[in-house]
Amino acid sequence: MSNEMQLKYGCNPNQKPSRVFMEDGSELPIEVLNGKPGYINLLDAFNGWQLVRELKKATGLPAATSFKHVSPAGAAVGQPLSDTLKKIYWVDDLGELSPLACAYARARGADRMSSYGDFIALSDICDACTAKMIHREVSDGVIAPGYTDEALEILKSKRKGTYNIIKIDENYVPAPIERKQVYGVTFEQGRNELDINSELLANVVTDNKNIPEDKKRDLIISLITLKYTQSNSVCYVKDGQAIGIGAGQQSRIHCTRLAGQKADNWWLRQCPKVMDLPFKDDVRRADRDNAIDVYMGDEWEDILRDGEWERVFTVKPEPLTREEKKEWLAKNTDVCLGSDAFFPFGDNIERAKKSGVAYIAQPGGSIRDDNVIETCNKYGMAMAFTGIRLFHH
């Protein structure tokens, strides 16, 4: 290890010189075991590591996240996968999966379109099972506290030997004050060391006060995920994994809609008609993901028109009708939702309801809190006011 690392360039090729370094002269908390990570790779790596480290601490389960452009596309803990999830995540051929591999399959599978070319963070030592899963996905790199010998060899063979593999010192403690520069001006603030735990969910303001323990866990997962998602942000979670993350939207309702659409797509992928799409054997996973995304959307004719469907399917599929979508989406229930700042209007709750949300955690403090609570009560939702904001920029 050393106290600095020279980089090829910054955010863009014209931004030179570029490096990361420790101002106090101490050693960097990372060791690059393979590859040459870039500026954005390292931003994703450090943000992702913090996220999975906190998820592991909060839940006691191995955690993984799939980062793209300094926000998570997915985040999850190591809950076992159903046969349906194994199939839609393209891991049903890998045999028995370790808890860490289950966590990454969930993190990658939440929004596979966004995760294409991701940077991965793992809370635990990367095992061979997880490495095999990573090896066949299009990805830029991985950060973890360690790697088994077999896992390291598998990952080193990826991308013709150039795959970025970073080992982080899991005992590293950053300085309590952080700084960055914008337009030559230095900004300084205390690090956001807020401990996110079930105590933040104690103030349930709706008529329905019942939030089961597994839903508290999912709400905590949503809040920890939001802590490292570019604001404004909203996160839908189900069964230990994010299923829809809306990042960086100026309007909260747009954030709720974006995340809700991603959650809907995750659920629609489990619809039998989608799962049974007759793909040709030689169609790559990324092309299958693209085809599924178009098939489920409003522009489905683009993939089913003559001359196009033959490229990916053995026979022409029937369209997924609006009525079929509505009927299938109605089956998604008990979804949890977190927001990094208060909901200003009840329209966010109305949109969340359409994606099966029944439990909500948000800071509260809007002048329209009464309207938001009233909308939750209309649907029998349970909502906790955490009293804390989780902006991240």
Topology:
Layout: E1 4-7, E2 18-21, E3 30-34, H1 39-59, E4 63-68, E5 71-77, H2 83-88, H3 99-109, H4 112-115, E6 118-122, H5 128-135, E7 139-144, H6 149-156, E8 164-168, E9 177-182, E10 185-190, H7 213-227, E11 233-238, E12 241-247, H8 252-268, H9 272-275, H10 285-296, H11 301-304, H12 309-312, H13 322-329, E13 335-339, H14 347-354, E14 357-362, H15 369-378, E15 382-385
Parallel strand pairs: 6-7, 7-8, 13-14, 14-15
Antiparallel strand pairs: 1-2, 3-8, 4-5, 4-6, 9-10, 11-12, 11-13
Helix pairs in contact: 1-7, 3-5, 5-6, 8-14
Widest β-sheet, arrangement of strands: 3-8-7-6-4-5
Secondary-structure element string: EEEHEEHHHEHEHEEEHEEHHHHHHEHEHE
Give me the number of helical elements. Answer: 15
The secondary-structure class comes to alpha/beta
Total number of domains: 3
Taking all Cα atoms into account, the compactness measure Rg is: 21 Å
First-residue to last-residue Cα separation:
28 Å
Major sheet summary line: 6 strands, mixed
By CATH, the superfamily of the largest domain comes out as: AICAR transformylase, duplication domain
Low-confidence regions: none
Roughly what is the average pLDDT, rounded to an integer? 96
Shape: globular
Specify the CATH architecture of the largest domain: 3-Layer(aba) Sandwich
Query: What is the CATH top level name of the largest domain?
Result: Alpha Beta
Taken as a percent bin, the fraction of beta residues is: 15-25%
